[in-house]
Specification:
The chain has 241 residues and is an all-alpha fold. Helix content is 83%, strand content 0%. It has 13 helices and no strands. The chain starts with a helix and ends with a helix.
Amino acid sequence: MKQIWIITKKELQSFFDSLIAYIMLIAFLGFSGFFTWLYGSDVFLRGQADLQVFFAIAYWTLFFFVPALTMKMLAEENKTGTIELLLTKAVSDWQVVVGKFLSCLLLVIIALVLSLPYYFTVWKLGPIDHSAVWCGYLGLILMSATYISIGIFTSSITSNQIVAFLLALFIGMFFHIIFDVMSNSFTGMTGEIFSYLSLSTHYESITRGVIDTKDLIYFLTVIFIGLLLSEISISKRNIAG
């Protein structure tokens, strides 16, 4: 666990040293704040004390931001050859993967924590469903963790950051949209399978304020698979090297 935390702190610090963290935080808070408070369906015009607009915008904003965070995680080290140096130290492949995963997840959590003033402000405007808000934040964290695991995997199989970014978006698009569209195009068991594979189905379930075990199992399973595939990928590179 100590090795994982060391890698996590190192990677998180690298985000702030390279200004990536500041850009991501400012852009995320700027986009979400603009659409929540100022544009079109803002809370004042809707006349409802909730954060539905914020969660709808964050759902898409994080979908694009997360691959941008993960694209360099392993691709850059594959390109420079520092991955071999890292793996010769007293750390396992799994510790490297989990450490990098946690650093990205912590940055996303920091961004969400900085958005809490939106929640407290809306709370002051009128009665608010607190359980729906906290479940909404949980949904965003689980969604981000899922795409982080996918992004780390795509970063592990290439040495090109742009390729890693595009691959993460491509794979993520299936979970974000395509499986949901396909579930509406089929009936019976096939439709149910695509519906279960759709991330939006489980995200929307959680954001309604109800935490279902099957939704948690879905997210944790996809996250574990993504991290496991990442470990296998860098293990093969290490053996080949």
